[in-house]
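Justification of resources, computational component.

The compute hours requested in this renewal are based largely on the per-chain cost of generating structure records like the one below. Each record pairs the submitted sequence with a full structure-token output. That output is archived, and it is also reused by downstream analysis tasks.
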Amino acid sequence: MKRTGSLVVICLVLAFVGCATVKVQAPKEPIKVDISMRLDVYQHVQKDIDAIEDIVTGAGDTSKPQSFMGFLTATAYAQELSPELENAALRRKARYSELTSLEGAGVVGETRDGLVAIRGSLDARAEQLVRDENQDRMIIYDEIAFKNGTSVEDVQKIYAERLQQSAPSGTPIETKNGTWETK
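The structure output for this chain reads:
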């Protein structure tokens, strides 16, 4: 019993000696944390562009065999498009062949901001087509920018690259420095 009592006393002494006092005090100056974060939305924007351009060009309507997973993911992704954006894409699809023939003739060009510009003389109907195309493209750019939390200008730059690459031969293309070249 004497041994147990001395063991308890030793443990208590060690417990008190081993405990340190910690003083918690707020600093006099506020703590400053500088965090810079850049969220790269390029991949998300690119998926939106691909889905929209599949609607416009009819690439999504192909009857070639597709994997089951590809079918499911394409369907799910297409359902994420807003009705306004989808309607703008469908209107672009309706004028796609006429616009590409004007581009191929060199009288309509693709700008560096993803819009079409008149580069030759056009009749009033073709000028209206260009205005309608630009209006629908801006609807699409606004929707994609909002959906992905980025600026319209960033979306336009990414989309312009895609449109310029897919434009037919003979299309005037505005370069990044503002000059025009023929594709």
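The CA atoms of residues 41 and 148 lie 7 Å apart. The helical segments are 2-18, 42-57, 68-78, 83-104, 124-148, 152-166.
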